Amino acid sequence: MKYLALLIIAAGLLLPLISVSQTVMYDVMVAGRVIGSVKVLLYENTSKTIKHRIEAQFSIPFYSGSFSSENDFLEGNLQSSVTEHFVNGKQKESTRTSNRHPQLYHVSFSGKATDYGKLKELNQTINHTMTGLYYQEPSNVGMVYSERYGQMCPVKKLDESRYGVVLPNGKQSIYAYRQGLCTEVQSELAGMKLRIVRRWNQLAVK
């Protein structure tokens, strides 16, 4: 019994170490200058469960921030997601989405967002998210879920390797791919146009 208990404890200690296999890095650029980075965590998923997580940080004069988004899927369906946005060390907003039962989600908002303190329900299936666009090219995907805004967003194929996603705020983010891998994202931050560019040959073991 003693050895069994030690084995269980050891397994519990090792699990977090092997849950993330690699990290893919991106540079956040404004006008050709690197102002931050995005980490895309590659988890050792199973045939039924999938975890996605991205972590971003950036810094410009008088303004620094970070953003994270995490998804958990079970058999292809989103089970939960959490996004957090910090500016100058303080939380600006957070959105949590949880699956209550098939095709029903609760979405809660906190922070300074327009929907602060609100709780809404989504009665639909969610199979694809904005975070997932860093992991897989959205071939034949018409809608993705914005974990930050708690809404579905249309995906439009622009050419052979680029896709546009119209956000609830009316702005469009453009995702480019090469051989199924996300190579670049064009977006906006505080009114500035961003390029989020993948660093090649820089996979790191977590």
TrEMBL record:
InterPro entries: DUF6134. Pfam families: DUF6134. It comes from the Bacteria. This is DUF3108 domain-containing protein. It comes from Dyadobacter frigoris. The lineage of its organism: Bacteria, Pseudomonadati, Bacteroidota, Cytophagia, Cytophagales.
